[in-house]
Amino acid sequence: MRKVMTGHKAVAEAMRQIEPDVVAVYPITPQSEIAEYYADYVHDGIVHTELVPVESEHSAMSACVGAAAAGARVMTATSSQGLALLVEVLYIAAGMRLPIVMALANRSLSAPINIHCDHSDAYLARDAGAFQVFCESAQEVYDYMLIAQRIAEHDKIRLPGIVNLDGFSLTHTSQVVEPLEDAVAKKFVGVFKPVHPLLDVDKPVTWGPFAMPDYYFELKRAQQAAIEEVPTVFLDVQKAFVKTSGRAYAGFVEKYRLDDADRALVVLGSTAGTAKIAVDALRSEGEKVGLLKVWLYRPFPYQAVASALERVKHVAVLDRAISFGAMGALYSDVATSLVRSQVRPALHNYIYGLGGRDITVEQLAEVLVGLEKVHPDEVLRYIGLRE
Amino acid sequence: MPNIKTLAQREEKEVRFTPGHTLCAGCAEPMVVRTVLNAIEEPVVVASPTGCLEVATSRFPGTAWNVPWIHVAFENAGAVISGVEAAYKALTKTGAVKKRIRFVVFGGDGGTYDIGLQALSGALERGHDFLYVCVNNEAYMNTGVQRSSATPRCASATTSPVGDEIPGKPQDRKDLTQIVVGHHVPYVGQAAVSNLIDLANKVERAMKYDGPKFLNVLTTCPLGWRTPRDSAIVQAKLAVETRYWPLYEVIEEKYKINYKPKAHVPVEEWLKTQGRFRHLFRDPQGKERIAEFQAAVDRHWNDLLRKEQCLSGGEAGQG
After folding, report:
1. Taking CB atoms and an 8 Å cut-off, how many pairs form between chains A and B?
2. What would the pLDDT profile of A196-237 be if each residue is shown by its tens digit?
3. Looking at chain B, which terminus has fewer C-beta neighbours within 10 angstroms, N or C?
């Protein structure tokens, strides 16, 4: 049944259906409403979840790690400074191979403090060992919460996963979402089977030992092997979801009017919606433009990105965060994707939307229209910046 | 109440903490761990923050733990055990877990007094059902004897050295036991490795309660205190006899001092046996500093006597 709901509610609905045993969460704008909706479910007895209203995000992820190692299905959500505070433990969750799914309401990082959207928090978690998905709409947020849960808990993966949703533009805006029926969603996600749980006291295990140079390297290599399995599992789970839901997802990226495009944008998150309008407008004027939207950000789908872009002539990669002292993080990934292509586009890097700065259809159209005239060099360009 | 025999019998039945760890010779930590674990009848799950105990007991691929054990990081043992306990509650509700399981944290003073205080406070306030044992050896021994907020005034540590200007640690130690009392949890106690039966009794009394329980256990570190390796028990005993480390408990907010030394043993007797205080017996101002140290010990002991008198819940408290 189609419903109107915010991105927050879409996350909370998916969580209600997933029904984790433990949710540990700490308030932060623009994530708090996820915690509030879920607290309602717990306090109204709709779910069996133990809610741990922790005293910080660091403790949120720490409690999640404890609960997951104990044998529970666990979830959390955070944003910005909260992600920065808990990122230490996110690395540990990945190292301990714990399937903790976390919604990340994307928000800028201080200083100056700012509560609005950009992707600096997601980029901060980039190398943590969690897989990451970006969403364009509240529907995608709902869908990828379910998909992420099943990927995270897959035997071959057992890693934390992050579902990114842009702060305010997705968290606080109401959109039409069509959730699955409860029974269908529950069946899709399946039952969590813990591995070596602490609570199996008859088979005591040591979780989180320390490893010296004689073992550390091999253990980290094994962790890399696990995240390298994500793409295969992602496609399987996405396919199963498409079959269950009738939604039209296919692959790690969405190619929008890209087949014959000579110019294209590459974006993450809700900006894809704005970009599609810009592409449509220019197409109606005969401009051959397109869009590549990246769903799976970590592990990065290099080959899919390369095959989507290599025949395009000019590509503008849009980063919604500065990687200070370097080119944008998404740009670097796209450049790496294309480095072995025989024919490859001229690449440009644009920084946009920091701290919630609006990005408009006109601005995106402007980037596409003049793109072939821009000299392709390793220079950051800025959209919507007063200089 | 347990005695040495019953504790030994319990260990014979199930060795929860096994030999072969790499704690230093003369370290008092294993005695605390074994005593606490032997004093609990039900199955336990243990968490430890980063520290001596964690490093010396869990070097991959070995382990000294014959009970389920988890280490996550330095500052978060309170939160980790909160998660484990929450999982237990949830999985008991669903029927996936059927046994009664108890939850114990062993954390050093660095991981408890300092970097882990927030996570501990949160766990205490939320009322999780667990026992937190601070294995307190009064400095960051694992990283090389740096001062912590549990380090006593005047003590020499590698980040509070005896220099020409500043002789050792200028500040008083923090009273963590009292901070925990301020959380109004059902059981708070102070114990010492010299009094193992007292420790076992405290664990047994504590485990009768649901909710957070806390024990601050003075645990000698020959390396950091610069004392002989065979003196761990004597050292802790002197700390108790000099009233530097009172053995007491606060059960349902009622105070009880478990041991009142009959003779007034000056704290100097304890200080002079330890290398970390050696400068007090060498420097011209040492006498004055020892007098200040003694005054602080007396003040805290008298405070405790008053609390016992006023907040004992017995006859003395009725007036």
Report:
1. 171
2. 999 999 999 999 999 999 999 999 999 999 999 999 999 999
3. C
**CA angle, B279 as apex, B275 and B283 as ends, to 5°?**
160
- Residue A68 has a CB neighbour count (10 Å cut-off) of 32
Which is nearest to A127 in space by CA: A162, A78, A81?
A162
Closest by CA position to A332, among listed A274, A266, A382: A266
**3-state SS assignment for residue A186:** helix
Q: % helix / strand / coil in chain A, to the nearest 5?
A: 40, 20, 40
The encoded tokens of residue B25 equal 């010779």
- Nearest beta carbon to residue B87 from set A54, A59, A70: A70
Strand partners, B257: B248
Distance between CA atoms of residues B265 and B95, nearest Å = 56
Please count the structural domains in chain B: 1
B267: nearest Cα among B234, B235, B290: B290
Residue A66 touches partner B, C-beta closer than 8 Å: yes
Strand order in the sheet with B102-108: A206-207, B69-70, B44-47, B102-108, B130-136, B212-218, B187-192, B248-251, B254-257
* Through-space distance between the first and last CA atoms of chain A, rounded to whole angstroms: 48
Chain A interface includes B226 (CB < 8 A): no
Query: Is the pTM higher than 0.80?
Result: yes
CA distances from A301 to A146, A213, A294, A322, B44 (A): 20, 31, 9, 21, 44
CA separation for the pair A255, A202 (Å, rounded): 52
* B83 shares contact with chain A (CB less than 8 Å): yes
Query: Domain range spanning residue A40?
Result: 3-244
Give the separation between CA A150 and CA A188, rounded to whole angstroms.
8
| Token duo for residue A300 | 């990065």
Region for residue A97 given its phi and psi (left: phi exceeds 0; alpha: psi -120 to 50; beta: otherwise): left
Both A33 and A167 in one domain: the answer is: yes
CA distances for B319 relative to A75, B252, B307, B309, angstroms: 52, 19, 13, 9
Closest A-chain CA to B44: A201
Residues pairing with A380 in the sheet? A349
Residue-wise DSSP of B262-317: SS---THHHHTT-GGGGGGGTSTTHHHHHHHHHHHHHHHHHHHHHHHHHSSSSHHH
Residue ending a domain, among A222, A244, A266, is: A244
User: What's the burial of B5, exposed, middle or buried (CB within 10 Å: 0-12/13-18/19+)?
Assistant: exposed
- Report the residue count for chain A: 387
Min Cα distance B116 → chain A (Å) is 10
Q: How many CB atoms lie within 10 A of CB A73?
A: 27
Please give the average per-residue pLDDT across A10-20, as a whole number: 98
Do A235 and A367 belong to one domain? no
- Domain of B255? 4-318
B90:A92 CB<8 A: no
pLDDT tens for each residue of B261-302: 999 999 999 999 999 999 999 999 999 999 999 999 999 999
